[in-house]
């Protein structure tokens, strides 16, 4: 190694050149503006510096310059008095200039006073309007979703929880992106251990860029090598507000329309915000259907492969004829047949997700009808398997949380492989691995498989099923909320149906 | 590291697992055994071939060899694809085999974990090969015969039987086994013609005809839906939906006496005669009970003479006696007094306007 460096010696040279350049003439971005003015009344020369692309020109023209030029502006201390802007800071620290400049402040310097600088807030926030939730759509219930601006998102939550206990801690994360990240919790409900863990993990992040809350999710996950998401993410303020009241912690990231929720458990990923809007019987049945669909989606193709390859005895005698005749012309073993179809479905999903909506629909039709029918007619796949794979794909779409849906989507491939290698034994083997992994997994240090393990009967009331609200007396036990009781059923007023 | 080695071993060892891809094997559905010369047996296997139009073709292959295992391996050599026997549903023994080697042949079926214990053992009147060579139903012969047995066990007079129960009855001291007997009527039809009774060595010694099958089932099994005709002074009633239970007890010791309490419930479905009054119904109940008592007692006498015990009297006596001595029981059994007491209840007699 040393040999090369001696000969070429290029790297140090490059560094020198770079540092020389920056030292002598600091590069200036094109949108960095500086201009000088003169207040004739007080005979004061002053200059302002700002970044034109993040500053609201309207504010400068209407709310700053007229006042500075016409009012009694004698010293830098006067700025606070004469400007109709609240956020005006007068500092002596020169080092702050750059930070403030790039956060949308105007930097005001007075020529007679070299020591002080004034920072005047003039940030232009471009906010898109609130829109409908696109990932977690619901038929009934609130139709607003988070947007990219963090202040707006906090506002949405504040409106839903107008209590002084709703705490917000702010962090700036990312050495380059300087992303504002807010940690939210309800002070007297949330367990401080959860809050502290989350705060520590947020502070420990050392990364250059945070583009979305998913970055935070991956950087703070308990097990970074797990396919399962360990924080629930939601774009619905109602869901975020709901879990805050349960005693959980919510993380909002500037620039991301998704909030992170922790601690969470596996079953929570299969609950939809709509579950709380239906009556408890409907909601419970829907949840059970969803959980069944997930198991079905993971296991059905591997089962098909295992049974057709090894366990012909398990096929009911009335089904044998159907299965055999559907496979008679197919030249591939069941595993190849299954892999071809599964990959086709994955391709279709990927293509559908990447393409613009209008073309995406066409892809759905092309995939569903053309490829499906054609492959059966060409004798590449059996129609029984086609139905199973389509059903499995359909069932995997049922997961309300997109990230969990993706985890499940790819979980079936190792199952398929093991089904081919060892039959049903292989599927059991694979299940054992997955279950062991889930048992070890935690979310913010709380068990992921709760209430199955550790068994918490009390928490079953809002997991596989959802009991009625008057049964939800306690908050989920794995959150370990400070205030465990949600309400006291004895204090409830008796219902009077008829005034007597 | 160990984990990865284990995983790797899983991958390479899996090559040793036998694959049997469903459309690349011949699935053996039924097998029949007949007598052949030189102490050999003639084995006939029934394969189901599924055609693309949805029909099932019966293919039989026959070979003569010494054991059932040899027969299969010889047939493998004659077949273009592996014959797998895991979903075997039916084993037919000809009467001649049933009188001689049934237990020896069935041993292979009992030992093999691949086989389900709910498959049927049956005895055929005449050659088993002939029965298998028929063309019954649309879904294959084995399915046809096993379905026929299924529904006759559920709703008819055939007492419950399968491999598991057969082995249990045969090996349990104080019990002997029984198997249904089928007969080929013509190329398209079969009939369950009798129940064959086996002695303690597993040899066919007696047959219970269709007429007495009802009473046999009352003794050895429980009813969940049968029908029987009862005649009383020229009137005739068909009793349907018969449910029955029996209880075998030692009623007296020294000398041993046993009692069988049979409880029968049913509905009168059809009645020919004068008006059916409550009194008449009670008379019918009594008559039916009497008939059952007579016929079952007759059957038990027959069992005692032959030294067989399909009802499991000995087994029941053992359960109710401390230090039960089977040697003593064998002597006592022939002259044992058995009381049959039947309690018939007619639940309803239909709606008459």
From TrEMBL, chain A:
InterPro entries: Spore_Ger, UPF0353/GerABKA_families
Gene Ontology annotations for the cellular component aspect, listed alphabetically: plasma membrane
Domain of life: Bacteria
TM spans (from-to): 288-310, 384-402, 414-439
Compartment annotation: Cell membrane; Membrane
UniProt keyword Thylakoid present: no
Keywords: Membrane, Transmembrane, Transmembrane helix
Residues annotated as signal peptide: none
Topology in membrane: Multi-pass membrane protein
Residue numbers spanned by region Disordered: 1-36
UniProt record, GO biological process: spore germination
Family that this chain belongs to: Belongs to the GerABKA family.
The protein's name: Spore germination protein
Organism in which the protein naturally occurs: Bacillus aerolatus
TrEMBL record, chain B:
Subcellular location: Membrane
Record bears the keyword Membrane: yes
Domain Spore germination protein N-terminal residues, every copy: 19-183
GO biological process entries: spore germination
Claim: Ion transport is one of the keywords in the record: no
Entry GO CC: membrane
Signal peptide: 1-19
Coiled coil: none
Family to which this protein belongs: Belongs to the GerABKC lipoprotein family.
Protein name: Ger(X)C family spore germination protein
Natural source organism: Bacillus aerolatus
């Amino acid at each position: 190694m040393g040999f090369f460096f001696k000969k070429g010696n290029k790297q140090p040279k490059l560094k020198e050149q770079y540092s020389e350049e920056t030292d002598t003439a600091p590069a200036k971005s094109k949108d960095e503006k500086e201009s000088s003015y003169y207040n004739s009344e007080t005979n004061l020369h002053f200059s302002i510096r700002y970044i034109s692309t993040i500053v609201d020109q309207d504010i400068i023209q209407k709310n700053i310059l007229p006042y500075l030029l016409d009012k009694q502006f004698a010293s830098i201390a006067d700025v606070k008095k004469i400007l109709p802007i609240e956020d005006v800071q007068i500092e002596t620290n020169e080092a702050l200039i750059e930070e403030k400049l790039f956060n949308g402040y105007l930097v005001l310097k007075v020529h007679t006073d070299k020591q002080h600088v004034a920072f005047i807030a003039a940030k232009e926030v471009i906010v898109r309007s609130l829109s409908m939730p696109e990932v977690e759509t619901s038929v009934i219930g609130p139709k607003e979703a988070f947007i990219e601006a963090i202040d707006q998102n906090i506002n949405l939550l504040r409106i839903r929880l107008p209590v002084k206990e709703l705490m917000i801690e702010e962090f700036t994360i990312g050495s380059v992106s300087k992303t504002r990240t807010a940690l939210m919790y309800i002070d007297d409900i949330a367990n401080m251990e959860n809050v502290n863990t989350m705060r520590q993990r947020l502070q420990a992040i050392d990364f250059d860029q945070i583009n979305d809350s998913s970055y935070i999710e991956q950087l703070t996950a308990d097990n970074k090598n797990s396919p399962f998401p360990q924080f629930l993410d939601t774009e619905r303020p109602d869901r975020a507000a709901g879990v805050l009241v349960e005693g959980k912690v919510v993380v909002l990231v500037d620039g991301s329309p998704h909030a992170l929720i922790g601690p969470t458990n596996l079953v929570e990923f299969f609950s939809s915000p709509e579950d709380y809007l239906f009556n408890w019987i409907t909601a419970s049945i829907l949840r059970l259907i969803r959980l069944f669909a997930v198991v079905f989606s993971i296991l059905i193709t591997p089962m098909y492969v295992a049974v057709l390859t090894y366990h012909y005895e398990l096929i009911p005698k009335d089904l044998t004829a159907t299965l055999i005749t559907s496979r008679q012309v197919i030249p591939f073993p069941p595993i190849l047949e299954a892999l071809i179809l599964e990959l086709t479905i994955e391709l279709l999903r990927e293509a559908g997700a990447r393409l613009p909506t209008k073309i995406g629909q066409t892809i759905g039709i092309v995939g569903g009808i053309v490829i499906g029918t054609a492959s059966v007619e060409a004798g590449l796949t059996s129609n029984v398997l086609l139905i199973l794979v389509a059903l499995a794909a359909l069932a995997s779409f049922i997961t309300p949380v997109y990230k969990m849906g993706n985890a499940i989507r790819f979980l079936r491939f190792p199952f398929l492989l093991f089904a081919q290698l060892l039959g049903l034994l292989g599927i059991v083997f694979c299940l054992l691995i997955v279950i062991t992994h889930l048992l070890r997994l935690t979310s913010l240090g709380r068990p992921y498989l709760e209430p199955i393990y550790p068994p918490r009967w009390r928490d079953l009331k809002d997991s596989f099923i959802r009991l009625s609200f008057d049964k939800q007396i306690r908050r989920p036990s794995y959150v370990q909320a400070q205030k465990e009781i949600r309400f006291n059923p004895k204090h409830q007023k008796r219902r009077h149906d008829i005034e007597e | 590291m160990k984990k990865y080695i284990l995983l790797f071993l899983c991958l390479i060892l899996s090559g040793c697992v036998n694959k049997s891809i469903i459309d690349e094997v011949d699935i053996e559905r039924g097998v029949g055994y007949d007598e052949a010369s030189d102490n050999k047996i003639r084995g006939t296997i029934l394969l189901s071939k599924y055609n693309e139009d949805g029909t099932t073709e019966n293919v039989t292959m026959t070979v003569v060899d010494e054991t059932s295992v040899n027969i299969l391996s010889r047939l493998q050599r004659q077949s273009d694809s592996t014959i797998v026997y895991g979903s075997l549903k039916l084993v037919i023994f000809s009467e001649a085999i049933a009188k001689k080697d049934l237990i020896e042949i069935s041993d292979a079926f009992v030992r093999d974990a691949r086989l389900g214990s709910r498959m049927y053992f049956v005895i055929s009147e005449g050659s088993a090969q002939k029965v298998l060579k028929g063309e019954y139903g649309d879904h294959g012969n084995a399915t046809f015969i096993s379905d026929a047995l299924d529904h006759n066990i559920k709703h008819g007079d055939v007492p419950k039987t399968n491999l598991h129960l057969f082995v249990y009855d045969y090996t349990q001291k104080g019990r002997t086994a029984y198997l249904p007997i089928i007969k080929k009527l013509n190329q398209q039809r079969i009939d369950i013609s009798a129940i064959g009774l086996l002695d303690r060595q597993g040899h066919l010694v007696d047959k219970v005809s269709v007429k007495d099958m009802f009473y046999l089932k009352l003794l050895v099994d429980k009813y969940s839906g049968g029908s029987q005709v009862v005649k009383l002074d020229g009137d005739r009633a068909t009793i349907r939906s018969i449910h029955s239970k029996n209880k075998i007890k030692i009623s007296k010791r020294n000398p041993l006496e046993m009692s069988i309490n049979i409880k029968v419930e049913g509905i009168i479905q059809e009645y020919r005669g004068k008006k059916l009054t409550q009194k008449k119904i009670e008379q019918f109940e009594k008559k039916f009970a009497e008939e059952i008592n007579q016929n079952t007692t007759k059957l038990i006498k027959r069992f005692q003479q032959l030294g067989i015990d399909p009802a499991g009297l000995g087994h029941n006596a053992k359960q109710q006696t401390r230090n039960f001595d089977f040697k003593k029981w064998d002597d006592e059994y022939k002259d044992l007094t058995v009381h049959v007491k039947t309690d018939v209840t007619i639940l309803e007699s239909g709606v008459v306007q």
